[in-house]
């Protein structure tokens, strides 16, 4: 992604392996954007697990790649243990338990663990196992970025010149290592010279739209309007929105979508107003084990995320946390909701735009072959 740091233009990913031998992973600290561009340095698998838990990184594809790098770190930490597989499995489970809804995390870490276990039981040396873990982690990251590029190519065709596109949460490069999922078609269309404008939902309570999507679009020079979450229906009703594109944290075989809280509401209102509602996600976000959205666990987070808002104080020139309700208020804070497949016009993937369960089954079959 394009970022400006100290007046210099850089092209970087949201996360990368900074030092292969020492297992140091570097990532953009998404908690402090857009007020400053800062980086978190993870020196252990526990640091990486904490980074996922504390929202230093977020977005299903980025979480998955972060987990993959965490497994690589865990291999380096455990390789000389007498009970290597047992110790490694414990570290992998720790990483997997950090965020229950985003399926990419479980998929990639489980794949890595099973591959490493197979090599270990096959008599591979310590150096060979480390090399396998490294290659797997980097391949997972590279495949995620390549999937995003293809999502951009397929999705761009859905965007007419002069379109107004509504997004929710952040499904850009920050959420997907590079390029993005929902932002990939937008980036691609803009680079091809199409005129467009993006309506960016603020996305309470973490304000990923206001803080992160707006920041990414600003870096790229893509025109946008920041709107309150409650304004989206108004602009759809007025006919000012041509299509909606969102990301996803988990997709079932039946095409139900788990995404940031508020997505379901947008899908229903888009349907009511005859506006196409697209979901952009790589096949790594599909959960092949489940059919319906009711089977997806929905993470609930701290009440503080609702009671307090973080922002930059211009007078004090610092980031502050401000109470916006009663401290005693009882809070419920689900992080995701479920959008039934009947409200989804299509799912934009690296294998094309999927519009039926049959499309999903065929794409997943091709995906399994490519990843065996």
Task: Provide the fold topology.
Elements: E1 2-5, E2 8-11, E3 15-19, E4 24-28, E5 39-42, H1 45-53, H2 60-78, H3 84-96, H4 103-121, H5 126-156, E6 163-167, H6 183-191, E7 196-201, H7 208-220, E8 224-227, H8 232-237, E9 243-246, E10 250-252, E11 257-260, H9 263-272, E12 277-280, E13 286-287, H10 304-307, E14 308-313, E15 318-323, E16 336-339, E17 346-349, E18 352-354, H11 357-371
Parallel strand pairs: 6-7, 6-9, 7-8, 9-12, 10-13, 12-17
Antiparallel strand pairs: 1-2, 3-4, 4-5, 10-11, 11-16, 14-15, 17-18
Helix pairs in contact: 1-2, 1-3, 2-3, 2-4, 2-5, 3-4, 4-5, 5-6
Beta-strand percent range: 15-25%
Mean pLDDT: 96
Q: How many domain modules?
A: 2
> What is the H/E order?
EEEEEHHHHHEHEHEHEEEHEEHEEEEEH
State the name of the first-level CATH class of the largest domain: Alpha Beta
Could you state the oligomeric state of the chains shown? single chain
CATH superfamily of the largest domain: Translation initiation factor eif-2b, domain 2
Word description of this protein:
The chain is an alpha/beta fold and about 375 residues long. It has two domains: about 1-150, Four Helix Bundle (Hemerythrin (Met), subunit A), CATH 1.20.120; about 150-370, 3-Layer(aba) Sandwich (Rossmann fold), CATH 3.40.50. It contains eleven helices and 18 strands. A seven-stranded mixed sheet has the order 8-7-6-9-12-17-18. A hairpin with a 2-residue loop joins strand 17 and strand 18 (about 350-355). The longest helix is centred in the middle third of the chain and has 31 residues, at about 125-155. The two termini are about 30 Å apart.
């Amino acid at each position: 992604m394009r970022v400006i740091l100290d007046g210099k233009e850089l092209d970087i990913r949201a996360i990368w392996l900074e030092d292969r031998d020492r297992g140091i992973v570097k990532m953009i600290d998404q908690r402090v954007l857009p007020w400053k561009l800062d980086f978190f340095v993870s020196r252990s698998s526990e640091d990486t697990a904490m980074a996922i838990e504390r929202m230093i990184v977020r977005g299903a594809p980025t979480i998955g790649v972060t987990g993959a790098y965490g497994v690589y770190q865990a291999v380096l930490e455990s390789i000389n243990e007498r009970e290597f597989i047992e110790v490694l499995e414990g570290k992998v489970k720790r990483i997997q338990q950090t965020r229950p809804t985003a399926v990419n995390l479980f998929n990639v870490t489980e794949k890595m663990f099973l591959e490493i276990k197979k090599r270990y039981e096959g008599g591979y040396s310590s150096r060979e196992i480390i090399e396998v873990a490294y290659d797997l982690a980097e391949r997972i990251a590279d495949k995620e970025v390549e999937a995003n590029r293809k999502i951009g190519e397929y999705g761009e065709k859905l965007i007419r010149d002069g379109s107004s596109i509504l997004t929710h949460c952040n499904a850009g490069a920050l959420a997907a290592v590079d390029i993005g999922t929902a932002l990939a078609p937008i980036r691609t269309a803009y680079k091809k010279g199409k005129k467009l404008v993006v309506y960016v939902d603020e996305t309470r309570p973490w304000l990923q739209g206001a803080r992160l999507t707006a920041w990414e679009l600003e870096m790229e020079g893509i025109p946008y309007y920041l709107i309150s979450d409650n304004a989206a229906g108004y602009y759809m009703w007025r006919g000012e929105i041509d299509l909606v594109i969102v990301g996803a944290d988990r997709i079932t075989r039946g095409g139900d979508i788990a995404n940031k809280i508020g997505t379901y509401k947008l899908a229903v209102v888009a349907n009511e107003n005859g506006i196409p509602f697209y979901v952009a996600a790589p096949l790594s976000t599909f959960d092949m084990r489940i059919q319906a959205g009711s089977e997806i666990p929905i993470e609930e987070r701290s009440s503080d995320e609702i009671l307090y808002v973080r922002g930059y104080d211009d007078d004090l020139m610092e980031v502050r946390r401000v109470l916006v309700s009663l401290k005693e208020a009882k809070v419920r804070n689900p992080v995701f909701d479920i959008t039934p497949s009947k409200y989804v016009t299509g799912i934009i993937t690296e294998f094309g735009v999927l519009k039926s369960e049959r499309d999903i089954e065929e794409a997943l079959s091709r995906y399994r072959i490519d990843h065996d």
